[in-house]
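User: Design a sequence. Structure:
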């Protein structure tokens, strides 16, 4: 597993940071709307958990696109970039 984690460590850290921020905001919004602490905690954990997983794969997909684009550059453009 560490062979997989090591090359993706930055994206995993970024995802974790996003997750904590999202939970905090979601809890505050859910509590403001419902006035119910249990409901706000439940909503704030469920939705951002799903979003964090989606975000990780979204980020990986965009990195893949960037890699493919950079590998298609002609040699003269790649050297200049």
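Assistant: Done.
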């Amino acid at each position: 597993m560490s062979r997989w984690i090591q090359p993706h460590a930055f994206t995993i850290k970024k995802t974790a940071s996003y997750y904590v921020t999202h939970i905090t905001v979601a809890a505050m919004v859910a509590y403001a709307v419902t006035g119910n602490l249990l409901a706000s905690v439940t909503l704030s954990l469920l939705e951002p958990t799903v979003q964090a997983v989606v975000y990780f794969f979204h980020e990986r997909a965009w990195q893949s696109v960037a890699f493919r684009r950079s590998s298609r550059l002609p040699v003269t453009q790649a050297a200049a970039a």
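Residues 37-71 form the longest helix (35 residues). The chain has one domain: 2-80.
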